[in-house]
């Protein structure tokens, strides 16, 4: 059988021609890219492969921006909290910030653009009552209230691009490399410059087939502290998109004026965990529209030169919002992003309105992994098998790697493994792409962000772990590779359009009062009534952690009636709690040997059953962690947390099927072994058995008619069979 | 040395004269009481001892109340939540209630006195929109909103006294004993009857020296379910004090009308964990004033007959509020209450405005403890040593026991032990009473209830354990026997009068948004500013659990600046948390071998340090459970929870001394061994070493000049020494 080729991107570098050709052949690659810190020589560019060239729109041109420092990108920052101990308070508002990264903007009148807030009284201090010392970078309040806390929200110029800063500091580039100063394409000179420069680039790089924008205009919020370490990071943050010009344009467009506090948000800076305010949503909309309009200009130039435009999902991606309503207008050919697992793969693969998507797999070919004595294959297997589940549902169109190819080349076992991976990818792709896989259920993930942040919930910095998120991220990771159709809906969607009629189960997962749980939204009668009706008529509702939580009218979980459980916060202690008996056998825990060994991650305290109809599936330490409850023709299911694992994948899938009242369908295209997943493609007449582990796994497989067969799969094997 | 006598009360019963005399002698008792279910015969009453006779004011007279059923006591109850699935909804509002205990009040117009609430929309349904079927006990809403939840707040008559009901059901009294129907002394016939009946009682019981009121008018809220089991219990609940007459009198007195919802409170019924509303505080004030006025009439009658009036702290005690402003007016001679440990002992002993207090110790002489093969001494030792710590600080004036003396008599070892206890009590009393013990600190427990609920925080039903309270109750139990002066202050106190100048440390302990933590009170600038000033000038602030918690202006803990820690709720995840390093040595943990073995009870998740000044004393699972923080001249200390134990007593005491900046004084009248406590009485020139364990304990003792001496104490020993 002839070796398949294509759909793979290779990083390369100078003076590595022969090996590049060899790997191009072995991995079947059809594209070559440069990386941060590597350049391609002409001989490599002449190989039979598309050439990707990384392109920075809004930085890497200090010669230009140094002539137009009034066009440097800006941020709204909040000072530390400062306590007045008398009636005069001087605030060192720059305290804790990194002066190489930011500098206060005194160009725009602070009396107009800054805000001093009494955080104790929650009032804005009259701008007549404070003065700034521009030499000392201090602000003095003349008539402070003793023992009130004050903060200053102030505008700064961002004089160092955060990604370059990170690389610069991490790699000790010292004085040899200048600090990239980012410029704001909303400003006239910058706007013209970005177009002219791109045009010149296209002229001067005829061998570049794909301009890989890294990325467009505004970096996600990334601020360093006075020790040159990360102080604040929000992969979704719009902090670096602000400016007086932007605020003025916003006012013209939306009809009202923003305050600094709309961005500063009490120091939380509208992290995605905050229930977004109308002003912030308007601002996201406003910036997204602007970014789409300006990015389209660049894409048009690229197309003019017969090249393709690819966007990197990260860095200066703010405002692109690939799931937003303006993304299509940009006209991009492709999006590429880093794959941390199944959920991040789907975040890339599901992006609409592009010709193709590409996933950059791990590990990077960097010395932190590729060093003597270490086996980079281990991380590669882990990354591949985790992401493969998601490829089986909706594949990216290409895969690729990054870093120093010369490093990887020193690890023959790794090179062999990637050869196998690339072949496997192409085989998967040829079956799965464009073929609707069998799905047993359609689920809707419900939160304050909805579709706009598809596959992007509970994320702080891209794919970085946090104690507070893994118990919820499990839901997405499980769903990314499961035989379910997944949509993301917002509270607004439900209120305006009702629950989509083809949805089987709604999932609401998160800590109380976060955007993912929903906070005050749950006070809205239209929302809760719509969901109650949906479940009552036969739908399913699965809550994780503190679903629907908002203290109101005798309930903490506003859909406690649906879930059959609520959280004891002290107010209901006087009411006797009699329902603590765990049911003997249940569909949801049918594969669980000992429910007390289940892993609920951070779990949740003080959950109790509302009535005798609540089916308690796990009860420990005087509280429920897993339960189900009938509600009309439908059902609610509660889970205290669901970190990603094979065991929890099975548990969660059973919970979804049970909530949907579709237990009978569960054993369709299913496996008795939780480590083997079955994906069927009826249109293609094939199905695949996938071993997610490094060990041999036997299983009973159930086909589309639930007929059994016995199989034994090799470690990590994917076995294709005809239906 | 002659055996001391007195200060002890014995239960007795019929046909037990000789043994009663023997125990009277051996235990040095000088009073004899009857109990529920026991009566004293004349011979016993003639012994050389005061005779206590239990007296019920508002029940036990069905012959009277059956003629005046319109004067039966009432309750406001809330139905279950009921979901409308169409535009008509019929609610079985009595569902889940015990029809032998309550019956709906149709005598007062439900359209006036009841309330139907749309809990989804948080609106009251117009009384024109619903109708009642008095035969079926149902209420029908004609124009319901589909998938909204509705509740009915309805008035009932309480046709069975809860305490008698409990005893009746528990002991299977069946048809032989009628159900006591409680009557409301606010009503004219009942009011006259209670006085006449007491007068007759006094006439007919010349040998009664002490009328033991059990108790006055209104029982704490205790409602049973349709299975005749406890449904709702609140030892502080005013639920059973309501009536249309009371509401009308309230309106006349306070100038505004209460709603049923002011009592029903979303179904939480104003449990003490709810931050009390102004209306509820007004209502407590209103009922307390009435109870004091009416109780005084009874006490006056008792005094007229030359007898003493003693009140039982429990049962129908609602409105007496021993720490409230009307209690003194009642003119009681004594209060007696059940002792569960140190905190409950102090709750009795600290009551002002009575001649004496009495603690009823455990175990009761009941068959559940006094059965063959069991050693009741074990419980007695546990109860005595736990409460003894508190006696050393402020003793009750008398101790006593309850139940069947004949049962106890069968356990000679128990009789011997109580002989020893009674002797020990009299010795303690003679030294401690009226002599101010050495105290190293003055602490103020700060919550929404303040002095009114001294020693009564975090309590649901008297001394019953709950998962949600023990981590906080530890603070009171520790303080009850510690060398500190304890006051209870409310947020109102701080706002109106500031922090008392002689207070060293403020303690705020509780779950977020409970009355004990404070909830919305923490939004009040006057409150937080006053406490900041207090700490800044050198005071201490100790927070336990979720102190000062209320999400507001960028903080969850409103005094995060003082405590140096806050709780991560997801909103600040984007901010890097660098402060995780545990300090090597610290005053607070000086006696702790391994901080990771500390017991924080239910503990608290996601606590993080605000800045580098936070001294982290224990850090596990990515979160802080114990820390300290400087603030001006003062300090804040944070604890995730502090269940009562010897280890935690030491830890908490060190935390208090550290917060107060008085570490140097800690080793004054102190012991090296955490199981031995030292109590000094400088006015009397003596001090006591108390072994709180059942085992021999060696220790180094530090006297008033911190001079050392070595001692070894016998199990449970109390050793007196001269200064």
TrEMBL record, chains A, B:
<keyword id="KW-0328">Glycosyltransferase</keyword>
<feature type="domain" description="Lacto-N-biose phosphorylase-like N-terminal TIM barrel">
    <location>
        <begin position="6"/>
        <end position="439"/>
    </location>
</feature>
<dbReference type="InterPro" id="IPR035363">
    <property type="entry name" value="LBP_M"/>
</dbReference>
<feature type="domain" description="Lacto-N-biose phosphorylase C-terminal">
    <location>
        <begin position="669"/>
        <end position="721"/>
    </location>
</feature>
<dbReference type="InterPro" id="IPR029062">
    <property type="entry name" value="Class_I_gatase-like"/>
</dbReference>
<dbReference type="InterPro" id="IPR035080">
    <property type="entry name" value="Lact_bio_phlase-like_N"/>
</dbReference>
<keyword id="KW-0808">Transferase</keyword>
<protein>
    <submittedName>
        <fullName>1,3-beta-galactosyl-N-acetylhexosamine phosphorylase</fullName>
        <ecNumber>2.4.1.211</ecNumber>
    </submittedName>
</protein>
<dbReference type="Pfam" id="PF17385">
    <property type="entry name" value="LBP_M"/>
</dbReference>
<feature type="domain" description="Lacto-N-biose phosphorylase central">
    <location>
        <begin position="442"/>
        <end position="663"/>
    </location>
</feature>
<dbReference type="Pfam" id="PF09508">
    <property type="entry name" value="Lact_bio_phlase"/>
</dbReference>
<dbReference type="Pfam" id="PF17386">
    <property type="entry name" value="LBP_C"/>
</dbReference>
<dbReference type="GO" id="GO:0050500">
    <property type="term" value="F:1,3-beta-galactosyl-N-acetylhexosamine phosphorylase activity"/>
</dbReference>
<dbReference type="InterPro" id="IPR013780">
    <property type="entry name" value="Glyco_hydro_b"/>
</dbReference>
<dbReference type="InterPro" id="IPR035356">
    <property type="entry name" value="LBP_C"/>
</dbReference>
<dbReference type="InterPro" id="IPR012711">
    <property type="entry name" value="Lacto-N-biose_phosphorylase"/>
</dbReference>
<dbReference type="InterPro" id="IPR013783">
    <property type="entry name" value="Ig-like_fold"/>
</dbReference>
């Amino acid at each position: 059988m002839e070796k398949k080729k294509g759909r793979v991107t290779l990083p390369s570098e100078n003076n590595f021609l022969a090996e590049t050709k060899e790997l191009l052949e072995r991995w079947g690659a059809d594209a070559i890219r440069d990386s941060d810190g590597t350049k391609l020589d002409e001989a490599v560019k002449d190989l039979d492969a598309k050439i990707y060239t990384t392109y920075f729109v809004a930085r890497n041109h200090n010669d230009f921006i140094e002539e137009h420092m009034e066009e440097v990108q800006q941020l709204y920052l909040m000072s530390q909290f400062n306590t007045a101990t008398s009636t005069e308070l001087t605030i060192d508002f720059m305290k804790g910030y990194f002066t190489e990264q930011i500098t206060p903007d005194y160009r725009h009148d602070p009396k107009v653009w800054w805000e001093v807030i009494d955080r104790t009284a929650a009032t804005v201090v009259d701008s007549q009552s404070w003065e700034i010392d521009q030499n000392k970078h201090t602000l003095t309040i003349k008539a402070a209230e003793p023992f009130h806390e004050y903060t200053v929200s102030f505008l700064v110029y961002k004089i160092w691009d955060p990604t370059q800063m990170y690389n610069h500091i991490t790699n000790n580039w010292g004085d040899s490399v200048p600090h990239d100063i980012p410029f704001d394409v909303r400003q006239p000179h910058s706007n013209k410059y970005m177009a002219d420069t791109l045009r010149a680039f296209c002229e001067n790089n005829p061998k570049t087939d794909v301009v890989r924008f890294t990325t467009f205009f505004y970096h996600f919020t990334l601020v360093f502290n006075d020790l040159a370490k990360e102080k604040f990071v929000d992969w979704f943050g719009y902090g670096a998109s602000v400016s007086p010009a932007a605020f003025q344009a916003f006012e013209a467009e939306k009809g009202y004026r923003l305050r600094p506090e709309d961005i500063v948000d009490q120091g939380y800076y509208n992290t995605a965990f905050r229930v977004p305010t109308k002003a912030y949503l308007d601002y996201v909309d406003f910036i997204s529209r602007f970014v789409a309009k300006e990015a389209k200009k660049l894409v048009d130039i690229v197309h003019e030169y017969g090249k393709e435009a690819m966007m990197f999902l990260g860095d200066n991606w703010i405002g692109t919002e690939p799931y937003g309503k303006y993304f299509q207008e940009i006209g991009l050919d492709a999006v590429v992003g880093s794959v941390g697992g199944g959920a991040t793969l789907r975040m890339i693969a599901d992006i609409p309105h592009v010709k193709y998507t590409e996933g950059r797999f791990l590990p990077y070919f960097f010395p932190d992994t590729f060093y003597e004595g270490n086996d980079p294959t281990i991380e590669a297997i882990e990354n591949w098998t985790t992401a493969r589940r998601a490829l089986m549902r909706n594949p990216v169109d290409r895969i690729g790697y990054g870093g120093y190819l010369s490093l990887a080349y020193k690890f023959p076992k790794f090179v062999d493994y990637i050869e196998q991976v690339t072949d496997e990818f192409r085989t998967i792709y040829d079956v799965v792409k464009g073929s609707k896989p069998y799905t047993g259920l359609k689920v809707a993930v419900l939160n304050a962000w909805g579709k706009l942040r598809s596959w992007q919930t509970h994320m702080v910095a891209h794919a970085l772990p946090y104690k507070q998120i893994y118990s919820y991220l499990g839901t997405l990771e499980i769903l990314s590779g499961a035989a379910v159709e997944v949509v993301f809906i917002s509270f607004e969607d439900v209120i305006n359009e009702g629950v989509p009629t083809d949805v089987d189960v709604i999932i609401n997962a998160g800590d109380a009062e976060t955007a993912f749980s929903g906070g005050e939204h749950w006070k809205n009668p239209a929302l809760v009534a719509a969901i109650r009706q949906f479940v009552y008529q036969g739908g399913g509702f699965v809550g994780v952690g503190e679903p629907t939580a908002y203290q109101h009218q005798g309930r903490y979980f506003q859909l406690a009636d649906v879930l059959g459980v609520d959280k004891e916060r002290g107010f209901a202690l006087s009411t006797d709690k009699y329902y603590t008996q765990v049911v003997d056998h249940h569909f949801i825990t049918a594969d669980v040997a000992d429910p007390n060994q289940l892993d609920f991650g951070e779990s949740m305290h003080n959950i109790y059953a509302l009535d005798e109809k609540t089916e308690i599936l796990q009860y420990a330490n005087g509280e429920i962690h897993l339960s189900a409850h009938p509600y009309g023709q439908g059902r609610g299911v509660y889970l205290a947390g669901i970190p990603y694992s094979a065991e929890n994948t099975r548990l969660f899938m059973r919970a979804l099927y049970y909530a949907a009242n579709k237990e009978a369908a569960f054993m369709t295209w299913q496996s008795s072994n939780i480590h083997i997943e079955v994906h069927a493609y009826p249109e293609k007449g094939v199905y695949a058995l996938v071993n997610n582990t490094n060990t041999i796994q036997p299983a009973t497989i159930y086909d589309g008619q639930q007929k059994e067969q016995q199989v034994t799969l090799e470690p990590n094997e994917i076995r294709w069979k005809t239906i």
